[in-house]
Design brief:
Radius of gyration: 15 Å
Distance between the termini: 21 Å
Strand content: 25-35%
Largest sheet: 2 strands, antiparallel
Length: about 80
């Protein structure tokens, strides 16, 4: 699996540029997807943050018009 990404500038979460100007789009769909997203991240952390795991873990979520449309996860193990 190959990922392409555009270079982005790093910023801290407290930076004014990170703050949404209109607030979050809270809806029943986003609430369900946020629960799923937290569940995916939690599950991956529990599986990967153990001795003996070497690799990369990526979580990608696609948003259209303020609504989470898709959540993907990718685990790449490095054999040592």
């Amino acid at each position: 699996m190959q990922y392409l990404s555009a270079p982005v500038e790093c910023m801290q979460l407290g930076d004014p540029a990170c703050r949404p100007t209109r607030g979050f789009n809270l809806s029943q769909v986003n609430d369900q997807k946020l629960v799923k997203l937290h569940s995916v991240v939690d599950g991956l952390l529990r599986k990967m943050l153990v001795r003996g795991f070497h690799g990369e873990v990526m979580v990608k979520f696609i948003v259209h018009d303020g609504t989470i449309e898709l959540i993907e996860e990718c685990v790449r193990r490095k054999h040592r």
